[in-house]
């Protein structure tokens, strides 16, 4: 069976996103069911949320960099394709 590279990438990123969300939900459940005093539990939840926010910001930054690179490469490819097309068309032929 043939799978395109993009579908493999989507399933891989979906897997990691699911794994990350599952780990976060598991950690939150573990903290909520652990026998701790209220103040300590609130501090743990706050610390966990802070770590989660920091991790999400890092991943967002990395994803933004990757998407930016793809956009730049796509723009260069389109520009090069236009240049090749324009140089290949016969003289005197109106392409508009």
Question: Which key phrases capture this entry?
Answer:
96 residues, mainly alpha, rod-shaped, disordered N terminus
Radius of gyration: 25 Å
Mean pLDDT: 81
Helix content range of the residues, please? over 70%
Content-based structural category? mainly alpha
Low-confidence stretches: 1-6
Most strands sheet: none
The span between the termini is 43 Å
What is the overall number of helices?
2
- Strand fraction equals under 5%
> What's the β-strand tally?
0
H/E series, N to C? HH
What shape does the CA trace take?
rod-shaped
Descriptive overview:
With 96 residues, the protein is mainly alpha-helical. The protein has a domain at 59-88. 83% of the residues lie in helices and 0% in strands. The chain contains 2 helices and no strands. The protein has helices spanning 5-33, 38-88. The two termini are 43 Å apart. The model is unreliable at 1-6 (pLDDT under 50).
What is this structure, in a nutshell?
With 96 residues, this protein is mainly α.
What is the element layout, followed by pairings?
Elements: H1 5-33, H2 38-88
Helix pairs in contact: 1-2
């Amino acid at each position: 069976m043939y799978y395109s590279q993009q579908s493999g990438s989507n399933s891989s990123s979906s897997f990691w996103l699911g794994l990350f969300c599952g780990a976060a939900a598991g950690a939150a459940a573990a903290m909520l069911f652990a026998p701790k005093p209220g103040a300590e539990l609130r501090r743990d939840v706050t610390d966990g949320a802070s770590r989660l926010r920091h991790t999400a910001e890092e991943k967002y930054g990395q994803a933004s960099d990757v998407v930016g690179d793809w956009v730049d490469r796509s723009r260069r490819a389109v520009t090069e394709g236009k240049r090749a097309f324009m140089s290949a068309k016969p003289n005197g032929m109106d392409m508009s």
